[in-house]
Specification:
The structure holds 2 protein chains of 2 kinds.
Chain A: H1 3-14, H2 32-44, H3 48-61, H4 81-90, H5 94-105, H6 116-126, H7 145-157, H8 165-176, E1 190-191, E2 194-195, H9 200-212, H10 220-232, H11 239-250, H12 256-267, H13 280-290
Antiparallel strand pairs in A: 1-2
Chain B: H1 4-15, E1 45-51, H2 57-69, E2 80-85, H3 100-112, E3 117-122, H4 130-137, H5 139-146, E4 149-152, E5 158-162, E6 173-177, H6 178-181, E7 185-189, E8 191-195, E9 199-201, H7 203-206, H8 213-216, H9 221-226, H10 228-238, E10 243-253, E11 261-271, H11 274-284, H12 293-300, E12 311-315, H13 318-321
Parallel strand pairs in B: 1-12, 2-3, 2-7, 3-4, 7-10, 8-10
Antiparallel strand pairs in B: 1-11, 5-6, 8-9, 10-11
Helix pairs in contact in B: 2-3, 3-5, 10-12
Classes of the chains: A mainly alpha, B alpha/beta.
């Protein structure tokens, strides 16, 4: 590991909370997403003690139903469960992983709650099919592109076949919500007659999920999305978005080489204290990408 | 968003046969004005409509000083002030977010009045990439320039807070950001805009942004399922906004809050009661506040008053600055008649 990368791990290690978890920023209360990425980073460097304490925190966040939410006090579970799943898998917490997977695969969004009239109204106003099941941020609400993408990514990376029914449905949802000009936003391609714009993070997450689910690059939505991301590289991109863009590019043959440049750009955002923006989640994510950690990639080195 | 028609039905149900009652006065977060006043007594709520022709620093500073002087503005000395702009998204073509030059002028103003600490805080609704939005909106640069703390409310520490509505369901125990709970003074600084699901969006609706996305999802989806009017009232009944400054220098009409077009009005509208400020702003936009579901509901549960007789206007008269905003056709019914926008 390069000295710069070990600084990132030092930053994460030095800000672990007494309960074993991490907040998004040092000194903040522990939450599931930053804790998962903190422990994944420590686990990838062989720090079993620190990762184990992080795992203890995540286990404490799991409810009897198998659900994991944003933290210890979330009774229902929600979108951050994707990160916990990656962590349970990586640290071989098999009973927890199994229960969480079952919960994620049984996760109810609002698609089953919409009446036929609701689906038609949504279709005429926002031009998407609300009857397609995906994943929402919180149970029983509307499914959106980003939580659907995060759950697909985590399920496939932890061994669920891309042919699984819920994953196929999630893929269908993502493809249905594409912005006509290319790319994705949070999940509304239109608002009445207005075509809405794509965003970098949503597009990168959607493509990363589609890549994980083996949707081929020749699909027009994938090609247009990759084109949108390539154009976006001319502008300023946030740290987290850049990290996900690199994963998206690594997911498809024609952009795999570009990922190297994006990773180099991401590496330049590292601060003197070793962190990325002083944020535990972003530091963990950037570390895992820059070190080619196996949890995010199907094979070491990150190539499909 | 997806639940507009359902929310509207829910609202009608709530305000129809099972009429919503006023929430307990003791539970309201200090937002309650006097519901009734003896006749002949001056209105207890004060709202200033201050001309501000442009975003030049002198124009803004003068307008803020004038508005502050002529309303029941809070005492800022020694206080931690949190400024909550509206930044649902950012576009170079459309005035979606609160103009950063106004935020900067406001930060300087409250700094001059002796604020101990000034924080700029937002929990973005559509696009959760706050690093990107703060940068493109110009907030990151201004925070650096003026030494403000910039907080992403979507990922702040959480403080469980009991909702003011005893019958609340989805928001019964709100998870509020620590930054908001620990503010001595909360200043809401929305853009004057139309809204495709709510009709208009001003100070009360701006408070959607204080509920963290990591708990309530994006685009604050749980709040839509709870019903937009009810969520606005439950949030504003529970979280006190001490002062509101509506950015009406240039607003947005048509298909807001993100796809509308710029509309110049040339005013700042401010006051200490968010509902009174919103009602006055609505009238300036050519909208009858009593026909806006959430404003009517806020009035009913006593978050403030939207009645013209309860609000003393300082500065310009409404009719002198009124600019009829183009409305989404679905909200044509909220247009006020020219004769009397009560």
């Amino acid at each position: 590991m390069s000295p710069r990368l070990s600084l990132a791990v030092d930053f994460i290690k030095s800000h672990q909370n007494p309960d074993g978890g991490w907040g998004y920023e040092p000194g903040r209360a522990s939450l599931v997403e930053p804790s998962a990425f903190g422990l994944l980073a420590l686990g990838a460097t062989g720090d079993g003690e620190g990762a184990g304490r992080g795992l203890g925190f995540l286990k404490a966040c799991q409810r009897e139903s198998g659900a994991v939410g944003f933290g210890l006090k979330d009774p229902e579970g929600g979108w951050m469960a994707y990160a916990a799943l990656l962590a349970f898998h990586s640290l071989k917490a098999q009973p927890e992983e199994r229960r969480l997977k079952d919960w994620i695969l049984g996760f109810e969004d609002a698609s089953g709650r919409f009446t036929k009239e609701d689906v038609e109204a949504i279709s005429s106003r926002f031009r998407y099919d609300a009857s397609i099941p995906g994943w929402s941020w919180t149970p029983r609400t509307t499914a959106w592109v980003e939580p659907t993408a995060l759950f697909i990514f985590a399920l496939v990376r932890t061994g669920v076949p891309a042919t699984e029914k819920r994953i196929r449905s999630g893929v269908e949802l993502i493809l249905d919500r594409r912005v006509p000009a290319g790319g994705w936003n949070f999940g509304n391609p239109y608002s009445k007659s207005f075509e809405l714009e794509a965003g970098v993070m949503s597009t990168a997450l959607a493509l990363t999920a589609l890549g994980a689910a083996a949707v081929p690059e020749r699909r027009p939505s994938v090609g247009a999305g990759l084109g949108y991301l390539k154009k976006s590289l001319d502008g300023d991109i946030s740290t987290a978005s850049l990290a996900w863009v690199s994963l998206a590019f690594m997911s498809f043959p024609s952009t795999a080489a570009l990922a190297t440049d994006v990773k180099a750009r991401l590496a330049r955002l590292q601060r003197e204290d070793g962190s990325f923006r002083g944020n535990i989640y972003e530091t963990g994510l950037a570390f895992l990408i820059l070190s080619g950690a196996a949890v995010l990639f199907p094979t070491p080195g990150g190539r499909r | 968003m997806t639940k507009g028609s359902v929310n509207r039905r829910d609202f009608l149900r709530l305000t129809g046969t099972t009429a919503l009652t006023a929430w307990p006065a003791a539970a309201l977060a200090g937002v309650l004005p006097q519901a009734a006043k003896p006749s002949g007594v001056a209105p207890l709520l004060k709202v200033a409509i201050v001309p501000c022709p442009d975003y030049g620093p002198e124009s803004l500073a003068a307008a803020l000083r004038a508005g502050w002087r002529s309303t029941h503005a809070p005492d800022i000395r020694g206080k931690r002030v949190v400024i909550k702009p509206n930044m649902v998204d950012v576009s170079p073509e459309r005035p979606i977010h609160t103009e950063p030059r106004l935020i900067e002028a406001l930060a300087l103003h409250v700094g001059d009045l002796g604020a101990r600490e000034i924080i700029l805080a937002e929990g973005t609704s559509h696009n959760r990439d706050a690093e990107d939005l703060f940068r493109r909106a110009g907030y990151e640069a201004l925070a650096k320039r003026r030494g403000l703390r910039l907080i992403d409310l979507n990922y702040d520490d959480l403080i469980p807070t009991r909702c003011v509505n005893p019958k609340a369901t989805l928001l019964r125990e709100m998870k509020l950001p620590r930054t908001i709970c620990e503010a001595d003074i909360l200043v809401s600084v929305p853009k004057m805009k139309t809204h495709k699901l709510a009709g208009i969006t001003l100070s009360l609706k701006n408070m959607f942004g204080v509920l963290p996305g990591m708990v309530y999802g994006w685009p604050k989806n749980t709040l839509h399922w709870n019903g937009i009017p009810l969520s606005i009232c439950e949030i504003n009944g529970t979280v006190k906004t001490h002062f509101s400054v509506v950015d009406g220098v240039v607003g947005m009409e048509g298909h807001g809050p993100i796809m509308g077009t710029a509309r110049k009005v040339g005013v700042l509208i401010m006051g200490d009661n968010a509902l009174a400020v919103d009602a006055t702003s609505a009238r300036v936009m050519g909208v009858d506040p009593a026909r806006v579901d959430y404003l009517a509901m806020a009035h009913k549960v006593r978050i403030g008053s939207l009645r013209r007789d309860d609000i003393g206007i300082a500065g310009e008269a409404i009719d002198r600055v009124r600019v009829d905003f183009a409305l989404d056709p679905e909200f044509a019914q909220i247009r006020a008649s020219r004769a009397n926008a009560r």
